[in-house]
Amino acid sequence: MSCWLACLCIIPVGTIMSIQLICVENDPPVENTSAYHQLEQLFSERMDEKVHPCDNFYQYACGKFNTNAGMDDDISVKLTEKIRMTVTGLLIDARRIPSKTFELAQHYYRSCLQSHQALERLGGHSQFVIEKIRNFGYFPLVDDTFSYGDQGYKDYVIDLTDVAIYFNKNRTTTTWLLPQFLMRRNDTAILQFFVDQYSIFQLSEGTVPDTAYPLQTAIALCIETYSKCYMQKILKDLASMNILLKNIVAAFYFKTTEPTTLGNLNRSYSSIDMFKLLSEISSSEVRHIFQDGLRINAPSLQRIARLDASLQRDPKAGANIIIIQFVCKSLGELDARFRVLSSRKPVKKHSLRSAGVSVSDKKALEEAWCFIKTQEKFGQALLASYARSINYTTEALKLLQSMFNDFRNAFFQLISEKHWSSKSKELVILRMAKLRNHLGLTDVAVGDLGYLDSLYEKYLQVNLHGLEFVDMEDVFNRINLMYEFSTLNNITAAKNHFKRIDIVFLHILNGRNMPWENRLQIFTTLLHFPMFLPNLPRFYNYASIGSIISHEMMHSYDNTSIGFDENGNHKTDLSKEFLKEHWLREECMQKMYEDSFEKLGYKKKKLKITVRENFADTQGIKLAFKAYQNAKKREGKESRVEGLPDFTEDQLFFLAYSQFFCLPEEKKKTKAWIAKDQLDTHSPKELRVNTPLANMVEFSEAFHCSPNSAMNSAVRRCEIFL
């Protein structure tokens, strides 16, 4: 190790020999277990000691790995593939797992794998409609292609019997709208038109999808026979925007700001008689949703106006906004699946990358697709079976919960030291005191399969055994519609009834904070080395999985979530003065990032969308370090890591924090990564390490960084929240 890493004991000035003797005498013994060996190997494979930590800590901690590692060495690729293979093996295993729900998951997955004939038969009907739409030229398809999220589906047009109308879920404000509902009117069908909110369009210059409300929904009634004449009329009407429902018509937000009503919206856009259009709906239950007093979000009206102006200038702009989707038995991906199976158009390898799969052949694609579908429907059951297969102990879960409690207590301690009003401190602390957590593997997942079965039995209310895949899909669609009806009519009851049937993401290395429920979740994929192992030293777990937990905890106070109270309501009793100061502190934080963004070649609009994540990064690591210091005082020093004896525990803590952000240079050059990075609401990984640490006095002290070094922002340091 470099000389500057020598053990730094606080002793009188003396010889080097006396320093070494005192250090050896006072330091705990070196640990020699396999877990500690893993840790030593991890650091040695990643650190670049040619770089000084006070110059660029990210390059120091990750430089060797970033330069030498290939795509397959990436943490997300390795872990997601490992988990997917394990769970897939359980799904096809003939051995019985003592859970009715998991048996249903196995039946669903196997039926999906065997469903290609039925899908080809049903998908074939859509060709008639596809050809008719193509006959009308530019509208609604552009160059016969469009992108649907990360899936890269093409010509996504399918036969129609049922319809679901989807409204956007805005990621920036975490607004969650759910009016997805089924409408039938004898033999009349309803066309669904929607815009993909991530990749179709931007509302104005400098506005990215994350900050927009791009979803436009249009409804048109049509007869059961798709005659060319009638189709032409619908397309003509749409092109002139005569029947476009503006953005979030009659949508019910879980939270609202500056609320208006459907009536106000209708008066603002008098060219569209929404009530007349809605009177065509025969179902009284559906009509009940569209009452005049229903509140909707006012800010979206400004964005609608900008869109209207754009469409008036060039009606053909609708070609880039409106997508026609016919739904056959409510199977949204049916036609895309049919096209893959018929091999008419090849699917790019990255099209299912989010599932942790590199697709190279038709069989692999089918397995990946079925795995995703099974995960959507039976995520908790897959999680439970996976937890049992890797023998996760309740002791490991207790350790995670203990860490969470340490973070919460550290938060209380830091807030109590603030020079805020007692009322402000009380409200901020109350929010954290009531924050619920779901740390990956719940007690239900680990052992209580009977309780899980009872939840799914209440959720499904129908026997799926013996049904084909297509019919099971229809069942799940109707269940979702009924749930969302109940959500619209009774939000509290619906949330309580279904709160334990969460979507579980087995293929995502992430966590999330849900301010509307005052709850955080850490996904299962994070509970593996190198993020977490129960027998790793305390400094490592607190810095790795711990900093992720504390990151999600601090999201409760970012610039949008701070407007929620301890019960998940979109209101706050925090004073306007407090909120104003909070936003000013965030401005100071963003200035710290600004120079680094430009040096790395990023534009300012990228900086604008990273505010929330920058806040959680800077405050999360500060909270994790404080909790670690408290635990160290409480429980004493730990055994040292063999091969790293010259590092202090605090130095190792910061090294451990950096490991999650190491990224192979090879991956950074791929088109898929570059495209995702441009819209990612997180800062570049180098800045996620360097900027939060440079803002911490504790880091500069640990590595003795001089005031003029890059990693010591003593002159420009910001006190952001904690």
Automatic annotation (TrEMBL):
Q: Does the keyword Transport apply?
A: no
User: Quick check: keyword Signal in the entry?
Assistant: yes
User: Which residue range or ranges hold the Peptidase M13 N-terminal domain?
Assistant: 53-440
Q: Which cofactor does it need?
A: Zn(2+)
Q: What would be one Pfam family of this protein?
A: Peptidase_M13_N
Listed A to Z, the keywords are:
Hydrolase, Metal-binding, Metalloprotease, Protease, Signal, Zinc
Q: Which residues form the Peptidase M13 C-terminal domain?
A: 516-715
Coiled-coil blocks: none
Specify the signal sequence span: 1-18
Q: Which domain of life is it from?
A: Eukaryota
Q: Can you quote a single GO CC term?
A: plasma membrane
Some GO term, biological process aspect, for this entry: which one? protein processing
Q: CDD domains this protein is in?
A: M13
| GO molecular function terms listed in the Swiss-Prot or TrEMBL record | metal ion binding; metalloendopeptidase activity
Instruction: Provide the family line.
Output: Belongs to the peptidase M13 family.
| Annotated protein name in UniProt | Uncharacterized protein
Q: Which organism is it from?
A: Cylicocyclus nassatus (Nematode worm)
